[in-house]
Amino acid sequence: MSLITRFLNRRFYYFTIILLIKSIVARDVVFGNGFSWLTLLTELPFFFAVFCLIEYFAGKRKMYYYLIVNLMFTVLYFSILMYYKYYGIIVTTDALSQADKVTQVGESTYSLMDPYYMLIFLDIIVIAVVLLLPKFRKARQSADLRPRKSKLWMAAFALSITVCLVNVLPNRASMNENKQAEEMGLLDYEVYNLVDKMMEEETLTPMSEITQAKINELKGITEPTTPKYFGAAKGKNVIILQMESYQDFLIGLKVGGVEITPNMNKLVQETAHYKNFYTMVGQGTTSDAEYVVNTSLYVPKHKAATDVNVDKALPSLPKVMKANGYATATFHTNAVDFWNRRELYSAIGWDKFYDQAFYGDEDHVAFGASDEVLYKKTLPELVKMDQADKPFYSMVISMSAHHPYNIPTSKYRIELPAEFKDDSLVTRYLKAQNYADYALGQFIDGLKSSGLWDDSIVLMYGDHQGLPLYSLDDDEKALMKEMLGTDYGHTEMFNIPLIMHVPGVTQPSEVDQVGGQVDILPTVANLVGASLANQIHFGEDLLNQSSELIPMRHFLPSGSVIDNENLFVPGIEYKDGTNHKVTDGTLTTSGGVTEDEYNRALELLHLSDSYVQQLPHK
Q1: Which residues contact 422 (CB under 8 A, 6 or more apart)?
Q2: Closest Cα to residue 518, out of 553, 570, 560, 482?
Q3: What pTM does this model have?
Q4: Number of other residues whose CB lies within 10 A of the CB of residue 61
Q5: Which segments of 145-279 are extended strands (E)?
Q6: What is d(CA 582, CA 564) in angstroms, rounded to the nearest whole number?
Q7: Of 40, 507, 568, 578, which has the most beta carbons under 10 Å away?
Q8: pLDDT tens digits for range 152-183
């Protein structure tokens, strides 16, 4: 009997070993417990169940079914690896439906890939060759590929399904998707997630019960009858600058005596710098930041807002500003159809958008024209809007410092110490943000020389994290610790700056107050004297409230929440969750987010989902 015939006859065992190895690789990357008894108990039964069916029913095409199953499971494990490296959670069918985006952000995706990941496809190529090449026909014909109509196969199938159910059923209540996947098994979790999605009938809170008073009660705030600074900047322009992948630790950072963001360092000396401000995006990352800031609503669970919410007539900051006599426009060098922005912009009511058609592909960096081109071409348009007969609200979205931060070497403006290797994600990030800071400095100078700076509210914030904790290797984590003086964790990763310049209102200051992107809309509305009495919003005015409750989604497990002092991440349930101080990210066992805050944060997310789903179509 040839070696190939022996392999074909013992296919059940060999394919089990092959897929077990792949599951060990995936679990080791995601959970850090590659080979363990838990791996055997949670991953093997799923393989057995599928293979028993193939053995029982399939005949001469049996090996092709094995190969197809192997390919499907391998692609799923590979997707889990890649998705986790950026998002820090387990990929779901919702995320897999966005596979078309991979081709458009290919460089960003490929940068997450360790070369050994590709080895999990090697066996498929080898087996396919054996099944297809004529020279192996005799070995294939010698193999026993008859259906195995034995009751033992059905008994083994039933036992495997039972073990899968035992893995799944006790863990359904866990809020933490990563813990669910670890305890259920990766394949069990994916099937459970798919079935649960198909059978789920979400009970929506009726519109009549979704009131601002209810939201404020859940957030633990009371809106003042006469808010401070209401209308203090009435008639002023509003310019919001969304900075790509910008994290707060960059401000004031020096590496080898070199300032990484010298222009921002100067800027915070003349503005209000909210240093405990947090990103609240989901799968849509940059487009989600646009959504949250302009609607004061939370992102949907494990979906991009631009894929599910943009068919609605969304209440928004552009609509509020237009109702108060403002012209509105948004500026982005990427194509407007990427992440379905055309529909987003229609839903939130921008008067006009500028995209790649306006900026062209001049001086290409990342996914479009460079930040230098963005600011150079945007400034004259803002000046034109300023010369019109009404004030304007504009949003400017930078993009050059986009993951994986492979800006042209001609854009490098700093040299870093030898330990910052050129191929390191941290090195590339710092150099890309240094270039973005250079371009930003030119824009700020342009705003000042044109007179716009003194006649405008200017807000700047990071859209989302730039250095995913899950993508960093040990050397990069050591570099981060050396730079920051503390371990790089969740609080540092999600901490973005908010820079606020309001003529006659804000003073140069470093503000400790906790806030999130959802708070920008009510803060701006208060400053320009726009009432939100008839508009639902889940954020709060940062100039009048100081008690925060920020539900986090997608990049952290469901149930994660930030309050004034801590970032809380649940375990299987609230009781085994962990608290991280917002000041330095250290774990704390005293105080922490209360179970009441945890439950209120979940209710806030549910109210936001219920509200959007019941809005009329645009």
Answers
A1: 428
A2: 553
A3: 0.93
A4: 13
A5: 237-243, 254-255, 258-259, 272-278
A6: 8
A7: 568
A8: 999 999 999 999 999 999 999 888 999 999 99
Cβ proximity of 303 and 553 under 8 Å: no
Choice among 101-105, 381-385, 421-425 with the minimum mean pLDDT: 101-105
Q: Which two tokens stand for residue 295?
A: 């609607």
Fold of the 207-613 domain: Alkaline Phosphatase, subunit A (3.40.720)
- The helix (H) or strand (E) run that includes residue 332 is strand 327-332
Q: Tell me how far apart the alpha carbons of residues 562 and 548 are, in angstroms, rounded to a whole number.
A: 8
Total count of residues recorded for the chain: 618
CA angle 299, 528, 324 (to 5 degrees): 85
Eight-class DSSP state of 200? -
Give the max Cα distance, the chain: 89
| Short-list 86, 102, 497, CA closest to 261 | 497
Alpha carbons 590 and 435: distance in angstroms, whole number: 42
Amino acid making up residue 121 = F
Residues 6 or more apart whose CB falls under 8 angstroms from that of 507 comprise 272
**What pLDDT score was predicted for residue 109?**
55
Contact present, 220 and 550 (Cβ < 8 Å) = no
What the block records as the tokens of 113 is 């890939």
For residue 495, the surrounding DSSP H or E stretch is strand 495-501
- Is residue 278 within 8 A of residue 495, CB to CB? The reply is yes
* Residue 551 tokens, joined: 């539900």
Would you list the domain boundaries of the chain? 3-199, 207-613
CA-wise closest residue to 247 among 267, 268, 277: 277
